[in-house]
Amino acid sequence: MSWAVNPNRSTLAIFVVGLPMVLMSWAGYAAEPVKLGLVLPYSAVYASLGNDITNGLELALSEVNYQVAGRPIVVLKQDSQVSPKVGLQITKKFIQQDKVDFLVGPVASHVANAMRKAAHDSKTFMIIANAGSVVLTRELCSPYIFRTSFSNWQPNYPMGIWMAREEGIKRVAILAPNYAAGRQMMEAFKEGFLANGGEILSEQYPALGESDFQPYLTNIAQGNPEAVFVFFSGADAVKFVRQYAQAGLKDQIPLYGSGFLVEGKVLSAQGQAAVGIKTALHWADTMDNPVSKKFVRDYKAKFGEIPSLFSLQGYDTGHMIIQALEATGGDTSDKMRLRRALEDVRFESPRGPFKLSRSHNPIQNIYIREVVNAGYGVIENQIIAVAAEALEDPGTGCDL
Amino acid sequence: MPSRRILFYAAVLAALGAVPMAVGGFYLEFTNQILIFALFAASLDLLAGYTGLISLGHAAFFGIGAYATAILVELGVVRLVFVLPAAVLLSALAAAAIGALCIRTTGVSFIMITLALAQLVYYVALNSPMTGSTDGMLMFQRPESGLPGIDLENNIHFYYYSLLLVGLSFGIMGRLVSSPFGRALQGIRANEERMSAMGYRAGTYKLTVFVIAGAFAGLAGHLFVNLQFFIDPSSLQWHASGQVLTMVLMGGLGTLSGPAVGAALFIGLEEVISSYTDHWMLPMGIILVLIVLFARGGVVGLWRGIRSKGPWNG
């Protein structure tokens, strides 16, 4: 009875019992990690892209020692196998079981489309580090979906215009893998190209992961086009460019593409077969600005190889997450606040100033790059023109 | 001891029925997936285990049930009373057409022709504009039950919907295999010539069970696409047919509990091993080899062997 009426003792009791509890909960909050769930391919046609994105992201996170606003950052990875079904399963596992704060990925547009509902419905932030599926920043845009890479429309639409106007090419054959990205990229190219007097002679869509392009190449050669425009990436790009050269078409019909065709490890594997190819993209590792040079240098020091565009996109994804978390003081529970912080992210990216459009897609320059022999056995992409400045995806149908 | 058996199944059903009260989110969906694949595997076992028809094309009917559901919902047919029968019926029809061709052959030819015809269905799914080809189809909503208070969008409601259909299907299949029809199927497996000589029209029996198995596979596909909100051609490729056959073999050919145990084991192992390594196929393959070598009746056969006469005699 006496303890209850003695204010000093009860205060002391509260203090003795209560303070450690407060401290523990505070420490518990401070130590609660921010979880990133990477849904990326580490096998199949886009394996190298998944690895590059992961490396780029880890480089950005290592710059802050995997620590933002007092919270450690934990990275979980699982192989999406470039399959929408597997990607969706991993996504659900990350959301429901691991309760990640951010999903990062994927590479392929059809995988991204399959993941969309799970991310949106569970209000889990999804930072797309490659997949350019236009619908995700147009009619199916979401407050929780952001993109640090590109929309499939972005590099291809200005390329269509540039080829017709600057190169004077009017008759082309086009080719891309038969999945969401392939079809969307060709649509965007046609939009720019046809409006400027171009004509499409043939349009072919081999399966994603196709190994033999011979029948398609024969078909192209028969139409006798002035140029060929393609989208391939990863292992498909290596096979296509090599087979194009082997078929003897390299010196007959100039090859154009979206820049993924000749990017990073893909370009090293293609070697001389890629020389002369002109492509459109939002960056090149030879870009002459201090941020880009520092990025290439740091990446090379850490991983012993030149970064690709995909590495860059992983790097920028890391910076975007870091900056948004800094802005909210590490708070991930207030979704609206975090969303605004992500929308307001601005930084100097190796590709130039990074800024998102209203529909959460980067606004960026599109460069024309040509694969050249730079001497000493080095084959690289050099920027020869700017196809579009500060290009914004129309974001049609998105009302964010 | 039929009464003990019924008690056992009642206990299993009760345990499955209690799952949503114990877990939610990931584990609920995980259990739901096991239920669906248990049905899919059991439907294949009607063919492979009971009738001796090893099919490597069973995923085609699973896929047809799934795509039929997704396409109908996309076309705006959202009432479950239409969607569910349509999915099952279309799978059964496809099974009738494919079965009519397949049952004329036996042995390796049967395996190859089921494989070939199912790949045909796969290529249709891969190239048809209706199915979204490689990208697959996203479902934006589940069908509407039309009953007050039952909303399939709710994952717990959907779990009970799956449990009801899977439970009913197992009940029907259980009655079927112990009926004279089921006995005849097992007779055909043992000796088709003798059954024919006794006056059984083996072809009719085989076609009938092929259609029934196809219909149950279609039902599993219908549940699967609703669970995932997604279907793509990889679900009806021959890999998928091989995977479900693996589940049957792991659990035990020629029983109904075997495929269910096999499905749970396969999906469970895949989940556990893949969280340690991306190369989950390797340990999985080793486990399968061990089961095939040392437990010829699968896990269920091993269990029964232990209970009756020691593990290595069965």
- Please compute the radius of gyration of chain B using only Cα atoms: 19 Å
User: Helix proportion of residues of chain A, in percent?
Assistant: 40-55%
What percentage of the residues of chain A does DSSP assign to strands (E)? 15-25%
What is the makeup of the main sheet of chain B? 2 strands, antiparallel
Number of strands of chain A: 15
What is the C-alpha radius of gyration of chain A, as a whole number of Å? 24 Å
The largest inter-chain interface, given as chain pair and residues per side, is: A-B, 24 and 19 residues
Shape label of chain A: globular
Q: Could you tell me the number of beta strands of chain B?
A: 2
Write structural notes for this entry.
The complex is a heterodimer of chains A (400) and B (314). Chain A has 400 residues and is an alpha/beta fold. Chain A folds into two domains: 32-150 and 288-362, Rossmann fold; 153-281 and 366-391, Response regulator (Rossmann fold, 3-Layer(aba) Sandwich), CATH 3.40.50.2300. Chain A contains 13 helices and 15 strands. The termini of chain A are far apart. Mean pLDDT of chain A is 92; it is low at 1-25. Chain B has one domain (2-237). Chain B has helices spanning 2-22, 25-51, 59-74, 80-102, 107-127, 155-178, 180-190, 192-197, 202-228, 238-251, 257-274, 281-294, 298-308; strands spanning 137-138, 230-231. The chains are: A alpha/beta (400), B mainly alpha (314). The A-B interface holds A 42-43, 78-79, 83-85, 88, 92-93, 96-97, 109-110, 113-114, 116-118, 178-180, 207-208 and B 25-27, 29, 126, 133-136, 138, 140, 228-230, 232, 234-235, 274, 278.
Topology:
The complex is a heterodimer of chains A (400) and B (314).
Chain A: H1 2-5, H2 7-31, E1 34-40, H3 47-63, E2 67-68, E3 71-79, H4 84-96, E4 102-104, H5 109-121, E5 125-128, E6 145-147, H6 153-165, E7 171-175, H7 180-194, E8 199-204, H8 214-223, E9 227-230, H9 234-246, E10 255-258, H10 265-270, E11 278-281, H11 290-303, H12 309-327, H13 335-343, E12 347-349, E13 352-354, E14 364-373, E15 379-391
Chain B: H1 2-22, H2 25-51, H3 59-74, H4 80-102, H5 107-127, E1 137-138, H6 155-178, H7 180-190, H8 192-197, H9 202-228, E2 230-231, H10 238-251, H11 257-274, H12 281-294, H13 298-308
Antiparallel strand pairs in B: 1-2
Helix pairs in contact in B: 1-6, 2-6, 2-9, 2-10, 2-11, 3-4, 3-5, 3-9, 4-5, 4-9, 6-7, 6-9, 7-9, 10-11, 10-13, 11-13
